[in-house]
Amino acid sequence: MKFNADEIASVIQAEIEKYESTIDVREVGTVLEVGDGIARVYGLSNIMSGEMVEFPSGVRGLAFNLEENSVGVTILGDYLEIEEGDEVKALGRLLSVPVGDAVLGRVLDPLGNPLDGKGPVATTETRPVEFIAPGIAGRQPVREPLQTGIKAIDAMTPIGRGQRELIIGDRKTGKTTIAIDTIINQKHSGVKCFYVAIGQKESSVANTIKVLEEHGAMDYTTVILSGASSPAPLQYVAPYAGTSMAEYFMYNGGHALIIYDDLSKQAAAYRELSLLMRRPPGREAFPGDVFYCHSRLLERSAKLSKELGGGSLTSLPIIETLEGEVSAYIPTNVISITDGQIYLQPDLFFKGIRPAMNVGISVSRVGGAAQVKAMKDKQVAGGLRLALAAFRELEAFAQLGTDLDAATQSRLDRGYRMVEILKQPQFQPLEVVDQVMIIFAANSGALDEVPINRVQAFEKEFLQFMRDVKATIRKDIADKKDLSPELKNTLTEAINQFKASFVKHVSK
Amino acid sequence: MPNPRKKSDSHDAGRQHLGTVYAKALLGAAEKAGQADQVVDELDSLVADVLDNQPRVDAILTSPRLTHEERLPILNKAFGGKLSPTLMTFLKVVSKHGRLDSLRAIARAARKQLNTIRGRVEVLVETAYPLSNPIRDRITARLSELLHRQVILTTRINEELLGGLVVRVGDTVYDASLAASLKRMQQVTLEHTKQTIRDSIERFAMPT
């Protein structure tokens, strides 16, 4: 497209004609020293903590430390252009980011600048990056489910909208995969998704974005990226910036999901900043307020009361542990802040149990209230956690090699099949009705005669069968979200019918 | 182009703080003797006329190789009888604490504190062209009226401003220069034009 230069010139002329000159009043200071993403500034005597400042190169900063003789400023951008003696201008406002529908489908940096080359973010609305979480009067308990589409999670550690559920585990245990699956599963739920990548390799973030695009998930997702090469101040503000963008939907009555991947790196960035600012180090050299840093962030996830529109912000913070050490400082902090955790273990992962969730120590403290009734049923996921725990104990016992009686053996067989059912390939979230049907089938013993290596084939074909042949039952469960005794009967009949044909097919 | 302000404004926050403390003590003692203005004038002249003009005197005073005992006779010989007794004693105290290297910071802080006590305020006015005396007086009078304090005006010429003037009072800058105004006009115009184009893109399309 070609632009008409005359038309543009006329607009500029009109702008100049109506421009009114005003005296620019500003509070200034002088850079004393600069380096490693921070600057010490002399002057700025009336600045407030958290206020934005501007350097001559146009780079913004945040007043972080107010000392007797100087102000410690974190530099949000390229600090190599700043020199000693530069004039620093106080802007008199707080750091804020663009919000609104325009941010969806974009890849942004923590200040809201586009990184995806798709042009400027077309919105005029902004929100402050630091925002006080809603108080008790503005909240209500979680009651709607947020379906992750992962059988193991939706069945045993259900997540409600407005909940904070921690995903914790060593490196390479599938933490990000759970988050991505959850985003992909929000395609038809209307939940807006925000993926905050902190201190990650840009190549893995590029991969993540590619996966999201392939599954059509970028239409409702924003990626806030502060990669491993970004300076510490940007990594530190990234989760707050992402939360501001997500909060916009919550306060407008919508639902949003935010993933912080991961908060251990953010804590490390905050530690770096604090040490450079000479704040006293505490345990593991983290500053004393690193707990507050995470608690004020996660408190902003909430289920708002009806008066405030009933919107919600669900968060899935991710923490990477070292050698399974959950009692380190940051993991214990975040475990105590969140409403439960999904614990992933490398040994399970390498055994092929993926998601590698350790059922015994993974919990969801509030999500049960939001779980769909059909899933909560005793014959579906109601007793699953305890049954699996009993199975693990039995399995350990069976490894001793003693002869087992038939009853014990059958409980073991059921357990092996249940573990097999809970395995799920990545990027293939299941609808909750499918999850209910297959777990019900496994619980009713329909798979006991199926060889373990055929269990996944059974699942796949069974769900296909229910979709194609018994669509009315499937629809009934999906609509009612509850299993009445009659529905259970018809479902059992359908399962038996499929089982007969499947066993015949297998034995052939 | 190197910024001429940089050298004079390069601060050492620690020394600055030190200067504030010593200056406060000096002013307290001098006020008691009723000669604060005189002492501060003398201190300023000591810094400007002696230390700045005679780097070797500066070197001797600040040398860490000399002990206080060795420095005392030098001080007495050099300044005895020429400075008021309060300032002389003060110099000896500063020497005893090994802080003679902070004398410039002390002088600056003392001047500033005295100004505050006397209800005066230092204002720096930057202009693109030299100010004539009547204009200077008018600016001083107007600023005194606005700030409700007696104004000590310093002027500086900065050709980059193009026109207008920039007034600095402490950390606050009132920028009424032509350069800043033009820059702001550019920003506002660009922003608004961009917005207009984005809002109605078809209006700007070249008819094909």
Outline the structure in words.
The complex is a heterodimer of chains A (508) and B (208). Chain A has 508 residues and is of the alpha/beta class. Chain A contains 17 helices and 16 strands. Chain A has helices spanning 5-17, 151-156, 175-184, 202-214, 232-251, 263-276, 290-298, 329-337, 346-350, 373-376, 378-382, 384-398, 406-422, 432-443, 455-468, 471-480, 485-507, and strands at 24-35, 38-43, 51-54, 60-66, 71-76, 87-94, 96-98, 107-108, 126-128, 166-169, 192-198, 221-226, 255-261, 312-320, 340-344, 363-364. An eight-stranded mixed β-sheet of chain A has the order 8-12-11-13-14-10-15-16, with helices on both faces. A six-stranded antiparallel β-barrel of chain A has the order 1-2-5-4-3-6. In chain A, strands 7-9 form a two-stranded antiparallel ribbon. In chain A, β3 (51-54) and β4 (60-66) form a beta hairpin. In chain A, α5 crosses α6 (263-276) and α7 packs parallel to α8 (329-337). The longest helix of chain A is centred in the C-terminal third of the chain and has 23 residues, at 485-507. With 208 residues, chain B is of the alpha+beta class. In chain B, β1, α8 and β2 (150-157) form a beta-alpha-beta unit. The longest helix of chain B is centred in the C-terminal third of the chain and has 22 residues, at 178-199. The radius of gyration of chain B is 25 Å and the shape is elongated. Chain B starts with a helix and ends with a helix. Chain A binds chain B through residues 1-4, 7-8, 11-12, 15-16, 19, 21, 23-30, 32, 40, 42-46, 68-70, 84-85, 120, 122, and chain B through 3, 5-7, 9-14, 16-17, 168, 170-176, 180-181, 184-185, 188-189, 192-193, 196-198, 203-208. β1 of chain A pairs antiparallel with β4 (172-177) of chain B.
Helix and strand topology:
The complex is a heterodimer of chains A (508) and B (208).
Chain A: H1 5-17, E1 24-35, E2 38-43, E3 51-54, E4 60-66, E5 71-76, E6 87-94, E7 96-98, E8 107-108, E9 126-128, H2 151-156, E10 166-169, H3 175-184, E11 192-198, H4 202-214, E12 221-226, H5 232-251, E13 255-261, H6 263-276, H7 290-298, E14 312-320, H8 329-337, E15 340-344, H9 346-350, E16 363-364, H10 373-376, H11 378-382, H12 384-398, H13 406-422, H14 432-443, H15 455-468, H16 471-480, H17 485-507
Parallel strand pairs in A: 8-12, 10-14, 10-15, 11-12, 11-13, 13-14
Antiparallel strand pairs in A: 1-2, 1-6, 2-5, 3-4, 3-6, 4-5, 7-9, 15-16
Chain B: H1 5-9, H2 13-33, H3 36-51, H4 55-62, H5 68-79, H6 85-96, H7 103-117, E1 120-127, H8 133-147, E2 150-157, E3 164-169, E4 172-177, H9 178-199, H10 201-204
Parallel strand pairs in B: 1-2
Antiparallel strand pairs in B: 1-3, 3-4
Helix pairs in contact in B: 2-3, 2-6, 2-7, 3-7, 5-6
